[in-house]
Design a protein that fits this description.
- This protein is mainly α.
- The protein has one domain.
- It is 43% helix and 0% strand.
- The chain is built from four helices and no strands.
- The longest helix has 17 residues.
- The protein is globular and about 35 Å long.
- The protein starts with 9 loop residues before the first helix and ends with a helix.
């Protein structure tokens, strides 16, 4: 997973069509302020209740809290093995 906790946002970075994209003000794309700059430790400590609250209307909800905690653990293992 090389540091990615969810999804494949790298696709957005490398897609040649995105060079035509323009900034927008769509509410669905506004980052969730509570999680925007969380550290790895803060991600590890997020409660299931807060996870459900923060990601209620987000695609991240599909991974569920247990899945995200699994992914966070994998990221931590990746960085500690470098």
């Amino acid at each position: 997973m090389e540091g990615w906790a969810f999804g494949c946002d790298i696709c957005q970075d490398v897609c040649p069509w995105n060079r035509f994209s323009k900034p927008n003000t769509e509410n669905h794309f506004i980052p969730i302020p509570q999680v925007l700059n969380l550290s790895l430790k803060e991600w590890e400590d997020i409660s299931e209740t807060n996870f459900k609250q923060y990601f209620k209307q987000s695609p991240i909800a599909r991974t569920k809290w247990k899945g995200m905690m699994r992914n966070i653990k994998a990221i931590k293992q990746h960085y500690t093995s470098l």
